[in-house]
């Protein structure tokens, strides 16, 4: 039986709060989490148990002007707890992995994806520059996923935010337990030049997060085995709507089907 495609929602604004709270999963299964972390570290010793943000309550709403908003609240937890929650099959359904990505396109319309290096938690997976949000993305009581996009793009590819054109809007792929917030980004470089530029950056890094760079110029170029399902849905949708100009997501007039409010 084929998998149903995830809803892809044009969004004009992210309204995200930082609301620290306890996470029962992390407390009640602390021993299992610790044992799982030791196992992960035995095969990937460079993994670091920092603090990350996960999304709790959230909803999709309309602004007074008709534009679409994702509203939500994040709490903080250990990275090892996040990975255990993922690897144990997402046992707490009230929590979402709400992260952002730079949906990078070259001047000739190809998407540029990275292949995660062997020492990372997602070794071999192919997707856009991305990362789980953390305290660096918290400003006062707000969570800024655009800040996460800019930081991850520069860290992984060497491209400064000023070197690419970002759409004002977001594209959210609602794929429970993931909520992928994609920020369309366009480089002035063609695909081959952009790939070479990123590869030069990787060659100069002592321990790059990426093992390689992939040009996806059409649906035929998608590596369906190593690209996460939510990103497969986005790429297929993007290529199906190839005639739309860059950034024309029409977030304020979307007819997308909204999930029930949570």
Proportion of helical residues: 25-40%
Summing up helix and strand content along with how strands pair, one would put the structural category as alpha+beta
**What best-fitting shape do the alpha-carbon axes yield?**
globular
Tally of contiguous helical segments? 6
The CATH superfamily title: Nucleoside Triphosphate Pyrophosphohydrolase
At CATH level 3, the topology is Nucleoside Triphosphate Pyrophosphohydrolase
Using the CA coordinates, give the radius of gyration.
18 Å
Distance between the termini: 28 Å
Q: Classify the beta-strand content into a percent band.
A: 25-35%
Average pLDDT level? 92
Summed up, the domain count is: 1
Series of secondary-structure elements, N-terminal to C-terminal: EEHHEEHEEEEEEHEEEHEH
Count of strand segments: 14
Low-confidence runs of at least 5 consecutive residues:
248-262
Largest sheet: 6 strands, mixed
CATH class: Alpha Beta
The CATH architecture is Alpha-Beta Complex
Protein model, in words:
With 262 residues, the protein is of the alpha+beta class. The chain has a single domain, classed as Nucleoside Triphosphate Pyrophosphohydrolase (Alpha-Beta Complex). Helices cover 25% and strands 32% of the residues. The protein is built from six helices and 14 strands. It has helices at residues 24-28, 30-43, 79-87, 145-157, 191-203, 229-240; strands at 8-11, 13-18, 51-62, 68-78, 97-105, 111-116, 126-127, 129-131, 138-139, 142-143, 164-166, 170-175, 178-187, 210-216. The strands form four sheets. Strands 1, 5, 8, 11, 12 and 13 form a six-stranded mixed beta sheet that branches. α2 crosses α3. The longest helix has 14 residues, at 30-43. The relative contact order is 0.20. The model is unreliable at 248-262 (pLDDT under 50).
